[in-house]
Design brief:
The protein is an alpha+beta fold. The chain contains 2 helices and 7 strands; from the N terminus they run E-E-E-E-E-H-E-E-H. The chain has one domain: YggU-like (Conserved Hypothetical Protein Mth637, Chain: A, 2-Layer Sandwich), CATH 3.30.1200.10. Strands 1, 2, 3, 4, 5, 6 and 7 form a 7-stranded mixed beta sheet that branches.
């Protein structure tokens, strides 16, 4: 890993072909949304229950759509059965994630 940044509490690591960061997932929420940063992680609310990998798939879909990349570029590195997940996104720079989080905070999510 080349670099670790802590902007606004969010820790993002740059790797050879993308970035790695962590998310905290709240399953069974009323809607799917990116809420901001909590404890160095991006907080996500997902409507899916945490069973049969449904919430993990929805987590990947939400992040891919928000970052404007294909779902195949968003990888769940660790935390398959945890609320705390490590995500790797290929061909994305840390600025894109920071902008995404800033937008979520500014829109009151």
């Amino acid at each position: 890993m080349k670099n670790e940044n802590d902007r606004g509490g969010l820790k993002i690591n740059e790797v050879e072909d993308g970035i790695i960061f962590t998310v905290h997932v709240q399953p069974r929420a009323s809607r799917n949304e990116i809420c901001g940063v909590q404890g160095g992680e991006i907080k996500l609310r997902l409507t899916a229950p945490p069973v049969d990998d449904v919430a993990n798939r929805l987590c990947i879909e939400l992040l891919a759509k928000a970052l404007g990349v294909a779902k195949s570029r968003v990888l769940l590195v660790a935390g398959r059965t945890s609320r705390h997940k490590t995500i790797r996104v290929e061909q994305v720079q840390k600025e894109a994630v920071m902008a995404l989080v800033s937008c979520a905070i500014n829109h009151g999510n």
